[in-house]
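Hey, can you fold this?
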Amino acid sequence: MPSSLIARYVRILRKAGLKPAYMDVATNAYLKMMKRMKKDISQEQAVCIMDYGHAALTISVFDNGIPFVTREVAMDWEVDNFDTVATVLSQVLDYYYSRNYTSHIQRVWVSGGNGYINDFCQYVSMQTGVQVEVVRPDMFDIINKAPEDVPMGIYFKAIGAAIREELAI
């Protein structure tokens, strides 16, 4: 993330009367959440997280817990145009497979509010041939006192960003 963009965010927060304590990038937030997936879910060597948010579609592939590729596309299409989402996802998966011959992505985990649109996961799954599911609270080893019906996908990035980890230096 360019330092000029970070400086812009800090200025905006300060104008709002807030004092930022830390900032995080989306890929790191996804990685921290991935580390907290229950073992029976996280056994896959390659994991794909698709954040279908309000302003952008972000697709990140992690290979053995390491960020492999991330693609972010500004939303210049109608939110219910699932064909565009399926096309972008297919492009990212094709790129991954062209550079990795041993791993296969079994599932795409969806976060972001637009992932809850009716039939979204089913449609994208049919178009790409990969199982597509919205993230759920029961998938993670995180103490969670929220009701089971809370749409975790909406808060996925925020929860990941809030998790602090000690750096091993």
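Oh, and this one too while you're at it.
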Amino acid sequence: MKFQHLSLSLLLFVGLYSFSQQTKTGPVIEDYGAVWEIENPDFATDKSLEFKVVFDVKDGPESDTEVNQNLNTVARFLNMHAQHGVPASQLKVALIVHGTAARNLLADEGHQERYGVGNPNRKLLEQLMEANVNVIMCGQSSKTRDLPKEELIPGVKMALSAMTANIQLQNQGYRPINL
């Protein structure tokens, strides 16, 4: 009998503890980029720094109905730092997209025509651009994959190539994160 009560109590405790350990979105990107709270990390975040980062995303999901989790990582970066007290004004983020991820930049109409569904990444990308993320399409991927600028989500910029954009941004002090 005592064993059953102990087991039930332990199960309840574990359930409540795991419930309290939920990921959270926002405050920069409200609908995406859920992150865990890390209390008192031993490697402290220097909140006085400017975080200049360029995410290089080349892989898209296998299904055209899924959000590209590599794109969601950009939202996670913004949210985790803002939740931890880094001012959004100190987060300078660029996103370069090429390879199979290039199709994730299509506006709904073009995505619907090609894949039979609206673009599940559109809302995430629009929120990223609203948060001043510089979203850049590789021009070489655009041509190779027949994804003209006119069919992309408004606000996406076209570069000569992903390589060119990466070099220019790194020369401006952006640190690369390859996904």
